[in-house]
Amino acid sequence: DAGVIQSPRHEVTEMGQEVTLRCKPISGHNSLFWYRQTMMRGLELLIYFNNNVPIDDSGMPEDRFSAKMPNASFSTLKIQPSEPRDSAVYFCASSNDEQFFGPGTRLTVL
Amino acid sequence: SQQGEEDPQALSIQEGENATMNCSYKTSINNLQWYRQNSGRGLVHLILIRSNEREKHSGRLRVTLDTSKKSSSLLITASRAADTASYFCATGSASKIIFGSGTRLSIRP
């Protein structure tokens, strides 16, 4: 298995633009998590899905953030419109028990 | 809000020494996990200990869990330069896993 796959690995965009981050979880895992990591705030859980259903989105910062999981093998995290304070590394993880992390997407909003 | 909190926030030791990191949590859990993160990388799972276990070993790692005190410790024996990283505890319940803020471990040569 290739592990959790995230794309893109790096994204640089201008304030106000829409950003879409993608994640392919490990096949067979029933939970998927989106995290954001910054120096100031550490690792924050944004949202997690169980069997493709969003269970807890209380970590999503505001309405500009949205996440979907249309099927068991794909999830997106969208920021619209993006702001400079959204700059961070965004991790996707999948699990049945222990979590396996993707390599992350480093987002820079100018 | 964070469920687990690691202590200390930062630790610097000499290569070859043992490193001990602690984690405290607030609510009941099904399991507790420790992860390592090298700079600029994703988190890597190290070890999972279930709520009915008190101690677990994996190579140079030893994890203890005290559910009465809601605390866990991670011991890395005979530390190496490659152990330099941030270490996170994550507590699991039936609904989700929540990470602490991490301990930054530095191994001096």
How would the blueprint of this fold be written?
The complex is a heterodimer of chains A (110) and B (109).
Chain A: E1 5-7, E2 10-13, E3 19-24, E4 31-38, E5 42-50, E6 53-56, E7 65-71, E8 74-79, E9 88-95, E10 99-101, E11 105-109
Parallel strand pairs in A: 2-11
Antiparallel strand pairs in A: 1-3, 3-8, 4-5, 4-9, 5-6, 7-8, 9-10, 9-11
Chain B: E1 5-7, E2 10-14, E3 19-24, E4 31-37, E5 43-50, E6 55-58, E7 61-66, E8 71-76, E9 85-92, E10 97-99, E11 103-108
Parallel strand pairs in B: 2-11
Antiparallel strand pairs in B: 1-3, 3-8, 4-5, 4-9, 6-7, 7-8, 9-10, 9-11
What report would you give on this structure?
The complex is a heterodimer of chains A (110) and B (109). Chain A has 110 residues and is mostly beta strands. Chain A contains no helices and eleven strands. Chain A is globular and about 35 Å long. The mean pLDDT of chain A is 93. Chain B is mainly beta and 109 residues long. Chain B is 0% helix and 57% strand. Chain B has no helices and eleven strands. Chain B is globular. Chain B starts with a strand and ends with a strand. The A-B interface holds A 31, 33, 35, 42-43, 45, 48, 55-56, 91, 93, 95, 97-104 and B 2, 31, 33, 35, 41-45, 48, 88, 90, 95-99, 101-102.
Features of this protein?
heterodimer; A: 110 residues; mainly beta; seven-stranded mixed beta sheet; four-stranded antiparallel beta sheet; 11 strands; B: 109 residues; six-stranded mixed beta sheet; 0% helix; globular
Which segments of chain A are poorly predicted (pLDDT under 50) over 5 or more consecutive residues?
A: none
Could you give the order of the helices and strands of chain A? Answer: EEEEEEEEEEE
Proportion of residues in helical segments of chain A: under 10%
Approximate helicity band of chain B = under 10%
Oligomer: heterodimer
Class by SSE composition of chain A: mainly beta
Strand content of chain B: over 45%
Number of extended strands of chain A: 11
| Major beta-sheet overview of chain A | 7 strands, mixed
Name the poorly predicted regions of chain B.
none
Rg over CA atoms of chain A: 13 Å
Biggest pleated-sheet summary of chain B? 6 strands, mixed
The largest interface is: A-B, 20 and 19 residues
Strand content of chain A: over 45%
Global Rg of chain B: 13 Å
By DSSP (H or I, 4+ residues per run), the number of helices of chain A equals 0
What do the pLDDT scores of chain A average to?
93
CA distance, first residue to last residue of chain A: 36 Å
How far apart, in Å, are the first and last alpha carbons of chain B?
A: 36 Å
Please, what is the average pLDDT of chain B? Answer: 89
